[in-house]
Amino acid sequence: MGLTKTEIFNDEQNQLATLLKAMAHPARIAILQRILISNTCICGDLVEELGLAQATISQHLKELKTAGIIQGTIEGVSICYCINPVTWKLLENQLGAFLGAYKGETKCC
Amino acid sequence: MGLTKTEIFNDEQNQLATLLKAMAHPARIAILQRILISNTCICGDLVEELGLAQATISQHLKELKTAGIIQGTIEGVSICYCINPVTWKLLENQLGAFLGAYKGETKCC
DNA sequence: GCTATTAATCGTAATATTGCAATACAATAT
DNA sequence: ATATTGTATTGCAATATTACGATTAATAGC
């Protein structure tokens, strides 16, 4: 089928999966790292810096945007992207709770 | 194409992307949560608890295992899965550094 | 009006993912 | 030996993703 059965999972699981999926690509991680470094926003510099075509970069940006991880505003001819603080905070909280739930040491496998 | 150009990204980006991708599915998040809760390992209880076929669960477990996030040992007839502490720690560090790199407040978009 | 410049979208090809039924395998029990 | 139980693998269909060239907006400057 190739169709994830989202209806059998709860909202938290689906939301976290969606956010992780949006980040689960080296190009999108690279894009986010670039935005994080030059805290001020960027635009199509990415096309030169990463070795991907403009259409491809634009697509990755769109995915990050629809996931709510970044936001963009028009800045003259180019477009300025930056982190969406709300989603970023949410991601930190959700992931923190998730990863932090593991208390090692209980010997098992 | 449909083929990620891993060669143009660095190891850190590729590794993080691979780990995130392994977790970026609600079923796999549910499986991990289940393992985290019953800190002691589990097996095919998942097939009953999640509403997915046995073959599908087995496939998701395999993905988590090949990504190094979980590990399994034979426990009589069934197989006992649990978190791989090394990878989990790595994930915490990598993600912590990544998410923590965002210092908000610098007004932008 | 035109013309660059920048980014989004469309169309397409190659590949990957998701899910399941059917089957195979491996360990134990009878 | 054979049956049972628990898990893995295979094969397949439906869908999603990745990447790119070509095209299409949208804006700025002339």
Automatic annotation (TrEMBL), chains A, B:
<feature type="domain" description="HTH arsR-type">
    <location>
        <begin position="8"/>
        <end position="102"/>
    </location>
</feature>
<dbReference type="InterPro" id="IPR011991">
    <property type="entry name" value="ArsR-like_HTH"/>
</dbReference>
<dbReference type="InterPro" id="IPR051081">
    <property type="entry name" value="HTH_MetalResp_TranReg"/>
</dbReference>
<keyword id="KW-0804">Transcription</keyword>
<dbReference type="Pfam" id="PF01022">
    <property type="entry name" value="HTH_5"/>
</dbReference>
<dbReference type="InterPro" id="IPR036388">
    <property type="entry name" value="WH-like_DNA-bd_sf"/>
</dbReference>
<keyword id="KW-0805">Transcription regulation</keyword>
<dbReference type="GO" id="GO:0003677">
    <property type="term" value="F:DNA binding"/>
</dbReference>
<dbReference type="InterPro" id="IPR036390">
    <property type="entry name" value="WH_DNA-bd_sf"/>
</dbReference>
<protein>
    <submittedName>
        <fullName>Transcriptional regulator, ArsR family</fullName>
    </submittedName>
</protein>
<keyword id="KW-0238">DNA-binding</keyword>
<dbReference type="InterPro" id="IPR001845">
    <property type="entry name" value="HTH_ArsR_DNA-bd_dom"/>
</dbReference>
<dbReference type="GO" id="GO:0003700">
    <property type="term" value="F:DNA-binding transcription factor activity"/>
</dbReference>
